Amino acid sequence: MLWLTCFLQGKNADKPQVTGQVLFRQHYSHGRLEAIFYLDGFPLDNNQSGRAIHIHELGDLSNGCDSTGGHYNPFGVNHPRHPGDFGNFFPKEGKIRKYKTNLSATMFGPYSIMGRSVVIHEQEDDMGKGNNKASLENGNAGKRLACCVIGICNKNLWEEKLSEVTDKKKRGLNKRT
Ligand SMILES: [Cu+2]
Ligand SMILES: [Zn+2]
What we know:
Blueprint: E1 2-8, E2 19-26, E3 33-40, E4 51-56, E5 62-65, E6 85-89, E7 96-103, E8 117-121, H1 135-138, E9 144-153, H2 155-176
Antiparallel strand pairs: 1-2, 1-9, 2-3, 3-7, 4-6, 4-8, 8-9
Bound molecules: copper (II) ion (CU) and zinc ion.
């Protein structure tokens, strides 16, 4: 088992100022990747559009999120079939708290996501249905709001955030009953 984290510094000049982290876990060597998206700083309005999140090819932040390259695309396929195409996320009260399983990216072997980056976009991912070239490359997700480089972390960080995310879900369910 290996754990990875991607810590967002929120240093971009643009609004909103997104902070938080994306965590990954995977069983060696053929387990499916799991991820926790734990992000803050979105507008409080619950009716805003979705925000696309992807893995980009490079872990180079020398020119902010602009130097992270395009979507990580080791097999030369169209968007949204890249391993790090995580789709759209809908913040609630300015936060994203999401646990996803069975993702197609991997942290092992020649196609590892380690050392690459996670990018949070301003707009919704059109999932390749935009009828233009950009749609099949990047989903027309717009500006890059925040980004981070994926590195190794320990188990504790994962366990802590996982219990927070799943507890929140339970509380949410209780509220509705
Ligand atoms: Cu992207
Ligand atoms: Zn993509």
